[in-house]
Write a structure and sequence with these properties.
By secondary structure, the protein is α/β, with parallel strands linked by helices. About 45% of the residues lie in helices and about 10% in strands. GO terms for molecular function: oxidoreductase activity.
Length: about 250
C-alpha cells in the first residue's frame, strides 16, 4: 500500500485501504524522516520537513487509534505507538507555532537544521500529549518516543558533499549501524518490561531526558491544537497556523 507522509490525502487513503482489509493493528512505529536542505511546501501548504516528519504521523496515528484500541480490547494485548525522534529536538528554541507559520509562508526564515529540530521536537511533544489523552480514556494503548542514535542513512541524501562526508568521518566512532539504531525502537515497541509505560523518551534502550521545551505540557497542548487545525485544512494553499486560531489566547 502506498503512503506519502507529506500528503494528508495520502495518509487518509492509506488508512481507508488498511481498514478495508479488517486487519488488527497492535504496533505503530512512526519512523518516516526527511531533512530538506532546500525550502519546500507540501501540497497541503505545510513546510515539507514538518509535514513529513511530524504532521503526517500525527494524522496517521489519529486515524489508526480506534483500530488499535479495538485490537487491544479483542486480543488483550496492549497496543504500542513509537514515535522516532532525535536528540536534535533539543536544538530548537523559540516559539514553535510562530516558526511553523513563518516557514510555511515564506523561505526567508527557513533554516534546514532548525526546521528538522522543530519536527523532532514535535514528535516528543506529540508523545507527551497523546499519552495523557490515552490515559484519560483508559485506552489499552501506550505511546513512547525514541532517539535511535546517529546513523548514516538515506536521510542525508540531500546533504551529500565534502562537508557531510567530513562530519560523518569525524563522528565515525559514534555512528551506529542500522541494526544498532533500530535496537531502541524495537525494545520500546516489544519489551515486556515497558508494559503500561507511556509518555516517555528513550535512548540506548534506557529512559532519557528530553529538552526543557520537550517536557513542557503547555507547549504539547498548544502543538496538538495547532495540529488538529492543520490536518483539518482541505484547501491546497499555503497554510498559516497563526491566522487559523486565536494564537495569543492559547
Amino acid at each position: 500500500m502506498a503512503l506519502d507522509l507529506s500528503s494528508l490525502t495520502s495518509v487518509r487513503n492509506f488508512v481507508s485501504e488498511l481498514e478495508s482489509l479488517n486487519l488488527p493493528v497492535n504496533i505503530l512505529i512512526n519512523n518516516a524522516g526527511k531533512f530538506a536542505h532546500e525550502h519546500a511546501i507540501s501540497e497541503d501548504g505545510i513546510e515539507m520537513t514538518f509535514a513529513t516528519n511530524y504532521l503526517g504521523h500525527f494524522l496517521l496515528t489519529k486515524l489508526l487509534l480506534n483500530t488499535m484500541m479495538k485490537t487491544a480490547k479483542q486480543t488483550g494485548v496492549p497496543g504500542r505507538i513509537v514515535n522516532v525522534s532525535s536528540s536534535i529536538h533539543g536544538w530548537f528554541s523559540g516559539d514553535m507555532i510562530r516558526y511553523i507559520g513563518q516557514i510555511s509562508r515564506s523561505k526567508s526564515q527557513y533554516d534546514a537544521t532548525r526546521a528538522y529540530a522543530l519536527s523532532k521536537l514535535a514528535n516528543v511533544l506529540h508523545t507527551k500529549e497523546l499519552a495523557q489523552r490515552l490515559k484519560q480514556v483508559d485506552a489499552n494503548v501506550t505511546v513512547n518516543c525514541v532517539h535511535p542514535g546517529i546513523v548514516r542513512t538515506r536521510l542525508t541524501r540531500e546533504r551529500e558533499g565534502l562537508i557531510t562526508d567530513l562530519v560523518f568521518f569525524l563522528a565515525s566512532k559514534l555512528l551506529k549501524t542500522i541494526p544498532q539504531a533500530a535496537a531502541t525502537t524495537c525494545y520500546v515497541a516489544t519489551h515486556p518490561r515497558l508494559l503500561n509505560i507511556s509518555g516517555k523518551y528513550f535512548a540506548d534502550c534506557n529512559e532519557a531526558w528530553t529538552s526543557k521545551l520537550g517536557s513542557n505540557s503547555n507547549e504539547a497542548a498548544k502543538l496538538w491544537a495547532a495540529s488538529e487545525i492543520m490536518v483539518s485544512k482541505h484547501a491546497k494553499a499555503v497554510f498559516d497556523p497563526l491566522s487559523a486560531f486565536d494564537y495569543h489566547h492559547m
